[in-house]
Automatic annotation (TrEMBL):
Keywords: DNA-binding, TPR repeat, Transcription, Transcription regulation
Gene3D superfamilies (UniProt xref): Tetratricopeptide repeat domain, Winged helix-like DNA-binding domain superfamily/Winged helix DNA-binding domain
Protein name in the entry: DNA-binding SARP family transcriptional activator
Domain of life (superkingdom): Bacteria
Organism: Phyllobacterium bourgognense
TPR repeats: 512-545
Example of a GO MF term: DNA binding
Pfam families on file: BTAD, TPR_15
Length: 674
């Protein structure tokens, strides 16, 4: 049996709550544990403390009746904890010593005597809120006594946690993070806790978490207290941000090799990067197209030429971060331009295995400066894509970054389309990249049949190249998307997808996609802190990956950070203006939770297949009082998923904050879902 007096006081037996606990049972236990070293108090004093608003005779009678109810309760459940005689009331701890009974406060007091980090973490785990948090005041001396004890315990724990986060040695990064989180949970205005989380995130290379923690701190202080963070917090934030690098901490994933993997009865081989002695051999095995980015300067001393060269370097590095292209390193590209001026692109394939060249140069016309970018198919010398963008010193840094991202996305999109067309026309033997493209073309659609077709294509890719991480990540993605679209109750397919993503993660430490899948699946499994950690790591590898940012936004929504979620999805759409439907699904969900129903509907209407979001669309129309439209969309949703039941779906929704789940349930029922 367990007695819990921190937070919402409960008595449980075999994991089940015991109903109808006598009113003063837990109060008397708390008083005896904290007030007396030998856990014994005279009947007269106990009566006076608990019934100080009555005369002595009535107080004694009330105590006698209360102890009688407690004795009957204990007999019913085999307890002998609260005992009494003619003079004293005391605690009999024999069942505690025999480990037949546990009391969280007694364990807390024992750990508090030790002072080591393990004991402190145990204290943090036991402290789930104030003593008897839901105690109803009875205008007695006990109420005042309880208030004093609550403050003392809370302050003592805060002091202990502060000592641990400030301890220079003997406390690991993870232990400091746990202490800091508990510190903020107990006192959300403790900036030391936020600073510790920022520092530990910096040490782990989690750049996004540093920024998110600072924003969370600033928002809490401004919303609740109308003050800004302390100078020390602001200075630490400014100090850490420039020093962070996109290095990842992949040891947080799975350092051990995983067992053989079976997905839907089909065995998927474990990635073995060592099968290919170089990255180039791996890329060739998968059939990835090889790209060289060239910048052709007219005058290397021209400041505008130098600025353009820097931008082209950024574009090259952005392409290098992708794992569905093989990119020639910038150093080699510069030597090709400087040592052998190119009139045509012949020879690049024979010498470097290049399939596509990105030809970039500065063009001046009518007093304006433009950056001209062309994508050339080396085999045919055909220009398959070209773009000219105005280029000027006065453009803000953000616009240069947007320009770089837009060019990267365009190059990738055109190459993928060109390669798929080439395979379809020439009937070449399919390779991993071909099957990856086929799967990728289908799985952006929120359609179950298409998702399953995509999964089979990704499996075909693994047959051609068992260590092709993008295909493994793709399989995991189709599984979590299918679970989402079908609103399935069981989570077996999510667990299977998680296993596949874990297999993919160690194969390529610089690929953020497995982290993205682990973050999304962890979110749906209710492992919220793990989810945000994975997304932090993924964003630190590739902060311009729009799809990852969209999923990050969804994870922030499930965590309850609605404003940050909306900010992240808007950032993803800015990076990927012709966004897939999933982006708008995520944005609409966040806007719904913010009670911005018209904007949520507008997001859904931007989808190519709004029917996939018929359920949230019906909910939004219902909350606007448009019952006819809500009924129309509810009917569409039930046609696609006739087995949908609100209770089952809500029960399996992984939202950290209960009020958010309740809001969604209310809007679904308002729309007429059963």
């Amino acid at each position: 049996m367990k007695l819990a007096v921190f937070g919402e006081a409960t008595v449980s037996l075999g994991g089940q709550l015991v109903p109808r606990v006598p009113a003063n049972f837990l109060r008397i236990i708390v008083y005896l544990l904290l007030e007396s070293p030998n856990h014994s108090v005279s009947r007269g004093k106990l009566a006076q403390v608990f019934w100080s608003d009555t005369d002595q005779a009535h107080a004694s009678m009330n105590l006698r009746q209360s102890l009688a109810r407690i004795r009957k309760f204990q007999e019913q459940y085999g307890l002998n904890l609260v005992q009494g005689d003619a003079t004293y009331v005391y605690l009999n701890l024999s069942q505690v010593r025999a480990e037949l009974l546990s009391i969280d406060l007694l364990e807390y007091l024992e750990f508090a005597q030790l002072g080591d980090i393990e004991s402190v973490l145990s204290l943090a785990g036991l402290y789930s809120g104030d003593l008897l948090a839901h105690n109803e005041p009875q205008n007695s001396d006990f109420d005042e006594w309880l208030d004093v004890q609550r403050v003392k315990l809370r302050d003592d724990l805060i002091t202990t946690l502060l000592r641990m986060v400030n301890q220079p040695v003997g406390v690991s990064i993870d232990e400091k993070r746990q202490c800091a989180r508990k510190l903020i949970e107990i006192d959300p205005y403790q900036e030391v806790g936020y600073r510790t989380l920022m520092q530990t995130a910096s040490q782990l290379g989690l750049i996004a978490k540093v920024e998110r923690t600072f924003r969370e701190c600033a928002k809490k202080l401004r919303d609740d207290l109308d003050v800004d963070p302390e100078e020390e917090t602001i200075e630490l934030y400014q100090q850490l941000l420039p020093k962070l690098s996109p290095a990842t901490t992949r040891s947080l994933i799975l350092p051990q090799p995983a067992p053989p993997l079976v997905a839907n009865g089909v065995e998927i081989q474990t990635p073995q990067s060592i099968l290919a002695t170089t990255q180039l051999e791996q890329n060739k095995k998968a059939g990835l197209p090889r790209v060289m980015v060239l910048y052709m300067p007219h005058n290397a001393a021209d400041p505008m030429e130098q600025l353009a060269a820097s931008l082209v370097d950024d574009i090259t590095i952005g392409l290098c971060r992708l794992r569905t292209l093989s990119v020639v390193a910038p150093y080699t590209s510069k030597r090709v331009v400087s040592e052998s001026p190119i009139d045509s692109f012949e020879g690049l394939n024979a010498q470097f295995g290049v399939n596509y060249a990105v030809d970039s140069k500065i063009v001046r016309r009518d007093g304006f400066c433009f950056l001209s970018v062309k994508l050339v198919d080396v085999a045919t010398q055909e220009i398959v894509w070209a773009e000219k963008q105005k280029f000027d010193y006065v453009l803000p840094e953000q616009q240069y970054r947007q320009l770089s991202i837009r060019i990267i996305l365009s190059v990738v999109s055109v190459i993928e389309k060109s390669e798929l067309d080439r395979y379809n026309k020439l009937y070449q033997d399919p390779n991993a990249y071909y099957w990856y493209l086929v799967g990728k073309r289908e799985f952006e659609k929120l359609d179950v049949a298409k998702l399953r077709q995509a999964r089979q294509s990704f499996k075909n890719a693994l047959t051609a190249a068992p260590d092709f991480v993008p295909a493994l990540s793709g399989i995991a993605r189709t599984m979590q998307r299918e679970w989402l679209v079908l609103a399935r109750k069981d989570k077996d397919i999510l667990l299977e997808g998680e296993q596949i993503a874990r297999h993919a993660a160690p194969a390529d430490p610089d690929d953020e996609r497995p982290l993205r899948e682990l973050g999304t699946i962890s979110m749906y499994l209710g492992k919220f802190d793990d989810s945000l950690e994975y997304f932090d790591q993924g964003e630190s590898i590739n902060p311009q990956h729009a799809d990852l940012l969209a999923d990050y936004a969804d994870a922030l929504n499930h965590y309850g950070y609605l404003d940050l979620s909306l900010e992240k999805i808007e950032q993803a759409i800015a990076l990927n203006p012709l966004a897939p439907d999933y982006y708008y699904w995520v944005g609409a969900g966040t806007l719904h939770d913010l009670d911005r129903y018209e904007e949520a509907i507008a997001f859904i209407q931007r989808m190519q297949n709004p029917r996939a979001a018929a359920r949230p669309m019906a909910a939004c129309w219902a909350m606007l009082g448009e019952r006819e439209k809500a009924s129309e969309w509810r009917q569409r949703s039930l046609e696609d998923n006739p087995d949908f039941r609100v209770g089952d779906w809500i029960k399996n929704m992984s939202l950290r904050i209960p009020e958010q789940r309740q809001k969604y349930e209310a809007s679904l029922r308002e729309a007429g879902f059963q």
